[in-house]
Design goal:
Elements (H helix, E strand, L loop, with lengths): L2 E19 L2 E15 L5 E5 L12 H17 L11 H19 L3 H5 L5 E3 L1 E4 L5 H14 L3 E5 L6 H10 L5 E4 L10 H5 L8 E2 L7 H10 L4 E3 L6 H10 L4 E4 L7 H14 L2 E4 L6 H11 L13 H4 L15 E3 L17 E8 L1
Parallel strand pairs: 5-6, 6-7, 7-8, 8-9, 9-10, 10-11
Antiparallel strand pairs: 1-2, 1-13, 2-3, 4-12
Helix pairs in contact: 1-2, 4-5, 8-9
The protein binds N-succinyl phenylglycine.
Length: about 350
Amino acid sequence: MPVEAVELRRVRLPLAEPFRTSYGTQSFRDALLLRALSDDGPDGWGECVAMNEPLYSPEHVDGAHLVIRDHLLPRVAAGRSLDDVRGNAMAKAAVELALLDADLRGRGVPLARHLGATASMVDAGVAIGEAASIGELLDRVDRRVEEGYRRVKLKIAPGWDVEPVRAVRERHPDLPLQVDANGAYSLDDVEPLASLDTFDLLLLEQPLAEDDLLGHAGLARRLRTPICLDEAITSARTAQQAIALGACTVVNLKPGRVGGLAEAVRIHDVCVDAGVGLWCGGMLETGIGRAANVALAGLPGFTLPGDLSSSDRWYAADVLTDPFVLDDGRLHVPDAPGLGVDVRDLADVTTSIELVRL
Ligand code: NPG
């Protein structure tokens, strides 16, 4: 069942509420979906997690679209490795996922089983952006706690750190709580980060710049809160080096950030060997990317709840698959072939379609 063509489809999806972080505020996703088509086999789906703008990482969705169309798919057509293309992890991950999904659906193999997942359910965590006021933040956290999320992650940035975290901790003394800075701090302003040590946080995620492994190692020696890396971990090699340097004791694993699920599984194995904590991150995925994340998070080395939320956390409507819903604070790992989710008719959310023949 060789893949004959890949459809590049852009869909515009409003977010249920604006998501404010240190790198900007997002109110919709201009998502790129890939559909791998073959004459006689099932379609395979992939989702590119590159953001509308290159603010979280150097990739963005328009750039990824061109890289996939002009550089990656021609290599797939010629049977050449995608490794020749430097960087562009999110573009590569999307291609890998669409081709893998087509193959697994054709062979009747669930993605979770293919990856080596052992769990049938995974703990759900939720990320909460910066709010206009502490009162608003507390309302948002209360709502998610009531919905049953098993841990909460707060976005922090200089000026929005100690007070909001203190307020949430006072209101919810036993809540598994962590914070994410997306690299917004420098070694000159570690004072507030040190103050966070009193709030019994699970971890402090990516406080410093993405290329500052030594800075993180130095910070880790000064703080009691475990340091987790996200943007800095781009491959199994960087994971190994970050761990060896003492730059982190926890890793946030996102398949899109590391070039796909195969590399993600290698990083999982590095973390297991090193005894380092691991959880699955999220990038506002639709049901397509979410299904892949949930399958990955079923691997045995995931020790902490992920950014794995119900579909309606991010999208009030226009969810592309049957929605993921919380079941006692957990999500079910799909067990049907491939991604294990059916993709609905997308006509009403589609903004463009391009077909690339292989
Ligand atoms: O649950 O899907 C989710 C989002 C969790 O906060 C989240 N993601 O910095 O980790 C992050 C952030 C993000 C979102 C990063 C979109 C990049 C794009």
